Amino acid sequence: MISQGKVTGVIELRNKVEGIFDENDIHLLQSIATSVTIAMENARLYRETVAMAENERSIRNMFQKFVPKEVVDKIILGTTEEKPLIDEFKTLTLLNIDIRGFSKFSKYLGPQKTVALVNYFFSTMGEIVFKQHGIVDKYLGDGLLAIFGAPVSSPTDADNAIAAALDMQQAMTSINEYVYKQFNTTLSMGISIHTGEIVVGNIGFDKKMDYTVIGEPVNFVFKLQAMCKSWPDSILISEKTRHAARSHLNVEEVGTFEVDRTMGELKIFKLLGQQQ
Fold first, then answer.
1. I want to staple 25 with a disulfide (CB 3.0 to 4.6 A). Which of 21, 177, 179, 258 is the partner?
2. Strand pairing of 135-139 and 143-148?
């Protein structure tokens, strides 16, 4: 039996009850061999398909805990013709959320309760990021950095980041109800949002890679976060994010911030609301 030019099996006939093997026997044997070969090939393809599906499911289950679905899709379905997930220079919107007074209440709660509280906070805020088509770039102890516009960009990246921030602000009510009931304390946070051109891709080396961002806008969104201390539980956005947003924003100008010597100063706004 031959399949795709390779021998897959042998059928041996030793004796015939009456007479000798003739042309009819040969044709019958060829038909049987062909049918068996097709059945064996179909079984092999089925096993390969099942194995590939199980492998893809395992990869998704493992990696989607760390990277968004779009990145996993490119890892699994990507081809050599596609642009690799490295060294892309893109305009992204960054969102940084930070818990206020983290050191104080972590000492009050102790390490185990602090981890439980922070995980609850991150699970709520992380779900909001994913719902608004962003990805969580990294956790920062008492906060997280989210990216909107990578690996897949859209014209509404800034709007999605703003919508996520407003959802996070609203979620603080239910978070604090839970935190007070479980830990007899409450949380305060600040959110900063900035838009700019950033290098995004796989950064690191072969044994430890992160899909992350580097560039001045990353530094700036953390500098902007420092200003949030003056407005607890508020959202501050940069002038660039306000211009990038397509939706109408209800904002209040709170001052200016020097980015660097080349870019000069940017206006900073407190976000009050968003209209689609």
1. 21
2. antiparallel
